[in-house]
Amino acid sequence: MADIDNSSPLRKKPLGVRPWLLFNSSGQSHILEAGKHAIMRRTGITGRDLRILDPDLSYPCTISGRERAIIFSVENIKAVIMAHEVLLLNSKDPAVAPFAEVLCEKILHHHDSIDPEEVGAEFGGENLDDRKRLPLEFVVLEACLDEACTWLDNEAKKPYTYSLLIFRG
């Protein structure tokens, strides 16, 4: 039986620690390495909601609204959407990376469209020109739904294209 060397200089991450791509409301992003308890404290979601996002488990497509967050798990997009930030799981996955770039652009566009006078007037109870801006959660939710629908549309076209190749061939 081989001896196990526990003095390895490379330490393993604690179980449950995953890399999340964190977007703030201004469009800046960085990788956040956090365990399930840290994510639960940060977002206010339960362990059950967090399991829905686990890519290693098989859960049906889910969009759930909670008090402080929206849990979005449809196909390859797994995200926790909050009022001022978004956590995206599996951002290095080749199927998710292009979406992360699109999401960043949408958040930047949303942030750049904010007029400081409009925000001040909005919180003061009067809106200068009756324009309504969507909250960040809705902008991100729209981007997630758009990406999921595009992905599902492409998946639905695959059998049709394959069957055309067989019948023509």
Automatic annotation (TrEMBL):
InterPro entries recorded: MRS2-like
Matching PANTHER family: MAGNESIUM TRANSPORTER MRS2-3, RNA SPLICING PROTEIN MRS2, MITOCHONDRIAL
Stated family: Belongs to the CorA metal ion transporter (MIT) (TC 1.A.35.5) family.
This protein's name: Magnesium transporter MRS2-3-like
Species this protein is from: Coffea arabica (Arabian coffee)
UniProt gene name: LOC140035529
